[in-house]
Amino acid sequence: MVLPLAEAIERLGSPFAIEAFSAVAGDPVLAVDFSGAELTDDDDLAAAYATLPQLACPSIAVGAGPLSAAGQRLRDRFDVVVASEAELELLLATVRRTPQAALAAVQLLRHNEHLNIHEGLIAESLMYSTLQAGPEFATWLGNQPPPRSQKPNPEPAVLVRRAGGRLYLTLNRPEKRNAFSVAMRDGLVEGLRVAIHDPSIAEVVLAGEGPAFCSGGDLDEFGSFPDPVTAHTIRSTRNPARSLAACGSRLSAKVHGACVGAGIELAAFAQHITAAETTTFQLPEVAMGLVPGAGGTASLPRRIGRQRTAYLALSGRAIDAATAADWGLVDALEEANGPGR
Known about the structure:
Elements: E1 2-4, H1 5-12, H2 17-20, E2 30-33, H3 46-51, E3 59-62, H4 69-75, E4 80-82, H5 85-97, H6 99-112, H7 117-132, H8 135-142, E5 158-163, E6 166-171, H9 182-197, E7 203-208, H10 228-237, H11 240-246, E8 251-255, E9 258-260, H12 262-265, E10 272-276, E11 280-282, H13 296-315, E12 319-320, H14 321-327, E13 332-334
Parallel strand pairs: 1-2, 2-3, 3-4, 6-7, 7-8, 8-10, 9-11, 10-13
Antiparallel strand pairs: 5-6, 11-12
Helix pairs in contact: 5-6, 6-7, 6-13, 7-10, 9-11
């Protein structure tokens, strides 16, 4: 149900608002119609401003048109803005299926808006670890086929090559569309360690072999963590997102094909991203009962803002390269040049 703006403001001012809009105690989402809104600075919006960041559910503003200054300030407090009810339905489908993960995602984005990258990565890891022990992820995992037996790949999961002052790090599991695995994490961290501690390296270039830059986390490894606490400790110790961020302005990325989950979360730390025109970008984790866990809640909002990051996470929708460029998720587009690129 989409509430009229006046009714939403009134309900947000109630002392019972937090429980009325809750993933466990009330409505699992607050959706409000902003079309035709005519708020002024004389309207009493203080309670709505204060309550929105505290809600135990996602808040969605419907209507992306121009507003008065007061209306814009209020809409900026919402977790997501969509232009139409058709777009709203995409988000609601995910929220209804995994309300706890949806809440966790927007809470994390609200929280990380005020943190530096390191603090944001710690918060993300804690939230991700919590959800790994939750019922929604357990349900998703229980519906997955058994992991496939695979022959060990003799090739390194990450190719490291230096040419003068430039270091190339290339994701190298093309047969798996560069699904992000433990071996790939370790290879990336080891390569980045060289870049971080060698000031003669002027540029670090992140790329991927095969038809996709990175198709997200390796599903065959999902659920293989020993326990959530140990998983968090490992992420706190060996986190490629932190290493990528440490490269600062030296880091660039060239992406193509599918950039799913980790595939865009990690690349978004780069100072400059070039994408093939056929590239697509997607955050599917909330529908799995999780949140983006490869650094995306720290990297993506710095490029596209909290609300667009929340839109990607809650909708699970894939966006094309042109949209990504328009949003600022990538900096330049180039023609695909070869199979899948």
